[in-house]
Amino acid sequence: MLRRLAGGERSIGELAAPFRMSFAGASKHVRALESAGLVRRTVRGRTHVCSLDPAPLAAADEWLRFYERFWTERLDALERELGQVDTSHDEGGEHE
């Protein structure tokens, strides 16, 4: 649903269509997305129109990028350390 909303406003019926779900089921999903702050719903007559609120997604993306850098740096450091251990082991010769 979020991907479809990235392309612009959609009614709940339009959001439900690709998933072959009922209006009630789609509305329940939209309520969950609203609660998470990801979607805004406006009522135009009898039609409920939804739009994406990208701010919370941007915050989540920033958080994920921080931890991606964090773990990449740690794993790169570990790889360097393991490479040094292998090199020093190889230089010491074999012990029989």
What does the model show?
- By secondary structure, the protein is α+β, with helices and mostly antiparallel strands.
- It folds into two domains: 2-52, Orthogonal Bundle (Arc Repressor Mutant, subunit A); 54-96.
- The protein contains four helices and three strands, in the order αβααββα.
- The protein has helices at residues 2-6, 12-16, 23-35, 55-91, and strands at residues 10-11, 39-44, 47-52.
- The chain has a three-stranded antiparallel β-sheet.
- The chain is rod-shaped and about 80 Å long.
- The model has no long low-confidence stretch (mean pLDDT 88).
Any chance you could write out the topology, listing elements then pairs?
Blueprint: H1 2-6, E1 10-11, H2 12-16, H3 23-35, E2 39-44, E3 47-52, H4 55-91
Antiparallel strand pairs: 1-3, 2-3
User: How many helix segments?
Assistant: 4
The appropriate CATH architecture of the largest domain is: Orthogonal Bundle
Give the tally of β-strands: 3
Dominant shape: rod-shaped
CATH class category name of the largest domain: Mainly Alpha
Helix content: 55-70%
Overall mean pLDDT: 88
Helix/strand order, N-terminal first: HEHHEEH
Structure classification: alpha+beta
Largest sheet: 3 strands, antiparallel
CATH superfamily of the largest domain: Winged helix-like DNA-binding domain superfamily/Winged helix DNA-binding domain
Q: Uncertain spans, ≥5 residues at pLDDT below 50?
A: none
